[in-house]
Design brief:
Number of strands: 5
Distance between the termini: 43 Å
Radius of gyration: 16 Å
CATH superfamily of the largest domain: 5' to 3' exonuclease, C-terminal subdomain
CATH architecture of the largest domain: Orthogonal Bundle
Number of helices: 10
Oligomer: single chain
Length: about 200
Amino acid sequence: MIAMLTGRVEAVGPDTALIGVAGVGYEVRMPAADIAAMHAGQETKVYTSLSVSQDSIALYGFLSQASKRMFLQLQKVSGIGPRVALSLLSTLTANRLAQAVSDGDATTLSKAPGLGKKGAQKIILELKGSIDLSALDAEGRDETSQFDTGTMQVIEGLISLGWRSQDAQRAVQSACEDNDIATPMKAEDVPKVLRLALASLDRGR
């Protein structure tokens, strides 16, 4: 089991990052906000989960242990696999997702591509009461240097306006790179990046 990678980001794609560790390159599928927070050349620590199926072997990674914990917990729900779990974590932070489950908010959960209202209701039914919100909050506070909450806020805002999570992630990444905005994103940069990303997406219609 590959539980964690510590190494250099060699390349970043739309939904994967190539992490070089001791001469070996690992392709890691990651949530949109985590991908947007990474750039080639940086040193990083990624918490990983290896998924093995009849069709493929895939490595999923997260910049926070809270996200990895939620990723694993989501897959305990019947019919929820790693791809849908990753889609949820590309749409909502681990804390927001846990709060939606606790509140029985199927509408918020169903914003994730590939899930739908019935799937959201099943997650609530099977996980409600089993997620420790206080533990997730504590993990989030301990890992704010790794997880880019500003980027996640912009991506969530774009998704709420109807854009797909992958398109939102690419627009945010481009806005930051083209305007020399550093990540993790500062709180004061969030409105600016949201405007720039929206303008970019509108031009691409």
